[in-house]
Design goal:
By secondary structure, the chain is α/β, with parallel strands linked by helices. The chain is about 45% helix and about 15% strand. The strands form two sheets. It has a six-stranded parallel beta sheet with strand order 2-1-3-4-5-11, with helices on both faces. A six-stranded mixed beta sheet has the order 7-6-8-9-10-12, with helices on both faces. The relative contact order is 0.12.
């Protein structure tokens, strides 16, 4: 490996012009496969590593790098979403820079600054809130942004969401159909679009069944297990506790189950449970969990597709996609 290898040296060794090496790097132009293979072989042997930022400054074009900033890498939904983003990006010859902001405003800002420093071609992000000023500022700088899973109110940005309201409504309607009239909900953050939509679906199902909405049966968590446990304890401690619980995501469901098992309650005979998100081992729990399964991989793939299209066609109208979740009925309800 040679230090500080540049395009000129690669071109000389491969016996081609600098422009041919550049077209090979950017996967553009008409180059024979034999020449392309020879150039890449020379690059590998010489240890050439292209500088993305320098390439972009020289060409005024793409550095073939997109950012994905997610709120919780421990959440299986976002792991599947990230795989969908990565697979589609790779098909387009783009690499993905993955960051985890942990539902923290300062960390979100830090990673947005990282994306600026890396001169990414665009980002995919579930905004921290439906008014997220940091994401709006980033988008105002001209960098393509696709909102995924969550949306920003009145923002003219591409977005890919799941129909959270319909999914929650179907889940709660299923509990009603099983004879439950006291249904508690561990909802998501009130400031997030997913939190509000899933709560709206819960209320829709109650209204359609002619059941009252009781504010004391709803607690807002933060999409993490501990909040699920704490709020389940609160709901189960009511003078007239719910006979069924609906958790607005899989991680809070884990905490909810911990609280239920700590009380020795049998599922579903003494308490029925349903949650948003299909956890990796949900089907082998005892009993298996009834869940609202989100098409996470497809959401990520669609978001990456929109971002690549936006990079190619910056001036097109914003696109909004809504994917449908699926109620998977198992033994917990």
């Amino acid at each position: 490996m040679q230090p500080n290898v540049n395009l000129t040296e690669v071109a000389r060794r491969a016996g081609v012009s600098i422009s041919t090496v550049s077209r090979t790097l950017n996967d553009t132009g008409r180059i024979s496969e034999e020449t392309r293979v020879r150039i890449r072989d020379v690059m590998r042997k010489m240890g050439y590593r292209p500088n993305r930022v320098a390439r972009r400054l020289r060409s005024g074009g793409s550095c073939h790098l997109i950012g994905l900033i997610i709120p919780n890498i421990q959440n299986p939904f976002f792991a599947d979403l990230a795989r969908g983003v990565e697979d589609r990006a790779r098909q387009g010859n783009f690499a993905v820079l993955l960051c985890n902001y942990d539902e923290d405003r300062a960390k979100e800002q830090f990673y947005l600054d990282v994306m600026r420093a890396e001169s990414v071609d665009g980002i995919i992000i579930p905004p921290l809130s439906s008014t997220d000023p940091a994401v709006l500022k980033f988008a105002s700088e001209g960098v393509p942004v696709v909102c995924v899973d969550r949306a920003i109110n009145n923002a003219t940005l591409d977005k890919v969401e799941v129909d959270n309201r319909a999914g929650a409504c179907e889940a709660v309607a299923h509990l009603v159909a099983r004879g439950h009239v006291r249904i508690g909900m561990i909802a998501g953050p009130a400031g997030s679009s997913t939190g509000r939509a899933r709560l709206a679906g819960y209320r829709d199902a109650l209204r359609q069944a002619g059941l009252p909405y009781e504010a004391e049966w709803v607690r807002h968590g933060d999409y993490k297990p501990e909040s699920g446990r704490v709020h389940a304890e609160t709901l189960l401690s009511l003078a007239e506790p719910p006979t069924a619980l609906f958790a607005a995501n899989g991680l809070m469901a884990i905490g909810m189950l911990e609280a239920i098992h700590a009380r020795g309650l049998r599922i579903p005979k003494q308490i029925a449970v349903v949650n948003f998100d299909d956890l990796p081992l949900a089907s082998v729990f005892n009993p298996p969990l009834t869940v609202v399964r989100q098409p996470a991989y497809e959401v990520g793939s669609a978001a990456a597709e929109l971002l690549l299209q936006r990079i190619q066609t910056p001036g097109r109208a914003p696109v909004s996609l809504m994917l449908r979740p699926e109620l998977v009925i198992r033994g917990s309800s």
